[in-house]
């Protein structure tokens, strides 16, 4: 378990994640920082869900700034896949049984209930009864399907957010589709890593993803730096008044801290 969150029900806890694979294995000018990438890909850790939870894929980005000021940009698609390990499913059910027993004992301790009142509370269907706790706060291995979070991440020297987002979504669709993609998955990964060059300054580049072509454009030397993030999302997230205040702070060269979940 990642962090001290044992009061949470097991499906609301976060667990320690790890990097399963990365390609290429090593680049001299861009060494792979496994701990940093792991933390930035899954800042809250590994999480589990069931078929009753929302499991829509989510995309986020991050920046790794090195001591010399150079930057590397990461784009992450987080999705959920079914847990096929019977051992993990059994462990999750055991965690729920322990959690519900602890919750129930704490409820009884706070109300100083005796064995007689315990029996009557179960008979009467009290909200604090073990039966109801198990019904509304449980994982049943015979009834529920367990899913675990997983990430695919692209690390790039420039923030081509839209191009990376489209490629990751297409790759995810290929992984989860009933129909296999036209070529093996490895060929698309090899293509993006070794065969798609950075576009020259002031030029655009068109390359092929899994299903559709993808275009990325790089500003010229006399243009503003690349900013591939949609401005509309900033307005939607912050609102007009907050954005004007933020812009004012930028012009006044004030220190700005953005904090969110």
UniProtKB/TrEMBL annotation:
InterPro entries: cDENN_dom (IPR001194), DEN5A/B (IPR047278), DENN_C (IPR043153), Tripartite_DENN (IPR037516), uDENN_dom (IPR005113). One of its GO terms (molecular function) is guanyl-nucleotide exchange factor activity. It comes from the Eukaryota. Coiled coil: none annotated. Residues 1-261 form the UDENN domain. Keywords: Guanine-nucleotide releasing factor. This is DEN5B protein. It comes from Chionis minor. The gene is Dennd5b_0.
